[in-house]
């Protein structure tokens, strides 16, 4: 696979002092890479720099080996899909899609077949003659996506495209986007602050914090092997517990557990709720009391008070039916990733 987009030491500092620092990133052809991080961490700044809507202070952005920094947005081999769909309200869906192709002096027959193909791709054949106002938010976003795809960009930029949609539709659109991306082989950069969205659609995730890259890995690695406490806390649900490390072992209270990475001294042990289990064993387990049981469909989220902390665990439905508020239990951890304690 070849490198489609290369960002080299990108820097942008706004007057306020915010911005991005030393961003470097290679995106392979056909890859979907997500920029993920809390509000203000610089995701949009990176995306807008790629699209040409913002001039970086230094660094380079290349597509297939050539710098694009000197090009205005409309000359760049990129297209952008925004959270607000930016469709022309008085034009039909067909005309919204055909517009860019007409500007490119494509022939009428070709435009017709390209637009119909694009509408089929986003499953909107029936909306061809409607104006955007008659469509739902999800449908309008599909039109915006089709319009961007018709420009055949080398890199498609998506800026929180689904954040205005309700939860159910957002899930559907994720699946659809992923499907379209596989079918077209298009390279995509997707911006979101929704970690679940990032985990579900990306080939790789760039976790950003305060203008810098905190971790760049596959969703699985980000989830299982967070490199920093920030990534551990930001992605997915997690318990953060004070402990003391000795090599590959970590002591929490009286109990000892194996840890994924060796650390000595004061640590924060990070344990996902699915890695906390109930046990009868007296050794290497922690005593606790059940504080709350929340049924969440096929599993329950159980809060266990142990010492000063309240730990969350996920329990299958049939097991949770046998638990009750106030019950004394013992818990163990099947997987612990720990980090040197920030205060140590
Ligand atoms: P969000 O999810 O809220 O959109 P983000 O991660 O996309 O956040 P950016 O929009 O890239 O963050 O902004 C990064 C930082 O730079 C923020 O602190 C923001 O306030 C600041 N910033 C962005 N654009 C400008 C600008 N034109 N002038 C001054 N400061 C800006």
UniProtKB/TrEMBL annotation:
UniProt keyword list: ATP-binding, Nucleotide-binding, Transport
InterPro entries: AAA+_ATPase (IPR003593), ABC_SmlMolc_Importer (IPR050093), ABC_transporter-like_ATP-bd (IPR003439), ABC_transporter-like_CS (IPR017871), Mo/tungstate-bd_C_term_dom (IPR008995), NA-bd_OB-fold (IPR012340), P-loop_NTPase (IPR027417), Transp-assoc_OB_typ2 (IPR013611)
Keyword field contains Ubl conjugation: no
Record bears the keyword Zinc: no
Coiled-coil regions listed: none
Domain of life per record: Bacteria
Entry's Gene Ontology molecular function annotations: ATP binding
Gene3D superfamilies: 2.40.50.100, Nucleic acid-binding proteins (2.40.50.140), P-loop containing nucleotide triphosphate hydrolases (3.40.50.300)
Domain annotation ABC transporter: ranges: 5-235
Protein name according to UniProt: ABC transporter ATP-binding protein
Native source organism of the sequence: Paenibacillus zeirhizosphaerae
């Amino acid at each position: 696979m070849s490198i489609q987009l290369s960002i080299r030491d990108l820097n942008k500092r706004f007057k306020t002092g915010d911005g991005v620092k030393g961003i470097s990133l290679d995106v392979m052809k056909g890859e979907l890479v997500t920029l993920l991080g809390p509000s203000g961490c610089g995701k949009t700044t990176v995306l807008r720099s790629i699209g040409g809507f913002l001039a970086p202070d230094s660094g380079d952005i290349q597509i297939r080996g050539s710098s694009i920094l000197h090009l205005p947005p409309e000359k760049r081999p990129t297209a952008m899909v925004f959270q607000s769909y930016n469709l022309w309200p008085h034009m039909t869906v067909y005309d919204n899609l055909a517009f860019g192709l007409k500007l490119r002096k494509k022939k009428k027959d070709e435009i017709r077949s390209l637009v119909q193909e694009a509408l089929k791709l986003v499953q909107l054949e029936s909306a061809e003659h409607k104006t955007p106002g008659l469509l739902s938010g999800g449908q309008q976003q599909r039109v915006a996506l089709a319009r961007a795809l018709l420009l055949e960009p080398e890199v498609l930029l998506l800026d929180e495209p689904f954040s205005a949609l309700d939860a159910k539709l957002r899930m559907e659109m994720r699946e659809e986007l992923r499907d379209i991306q596989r079918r077209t082989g298009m390279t995509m950069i997707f911006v979101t602050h929704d970690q679940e969205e990032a985990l579900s659609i990306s080939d790789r995730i760039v976790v950003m914090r305060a203008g810098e890259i905190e971790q760049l890995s596959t969703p699985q690695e980000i989830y299982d092997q967070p490199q920093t406490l920030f990534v551990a806390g930001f992605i997915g649900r997690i318990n953060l517990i004070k402990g003391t490390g000795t090599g590959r072992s970590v002591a929490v209270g009286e109990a000892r557990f194996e840890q994924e990475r060796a650390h000595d001294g004061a640590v924060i042990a990070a344990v996902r709720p699915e890695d906390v289990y109930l046990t009868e064993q007296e050794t290497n387990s922690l005593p606790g009391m059940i504080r709350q049981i929340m049924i969440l469909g096929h599993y329950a989220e159980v809060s266990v008070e142990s010492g000063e902390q309240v730990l969350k665990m996920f329990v299958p439905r049939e097991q949770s039916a046998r638990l009750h508020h106030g019950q004394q239990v013992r818990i163990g951890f099947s997987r612990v990733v720990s980090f040197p304690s920030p205060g140590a």
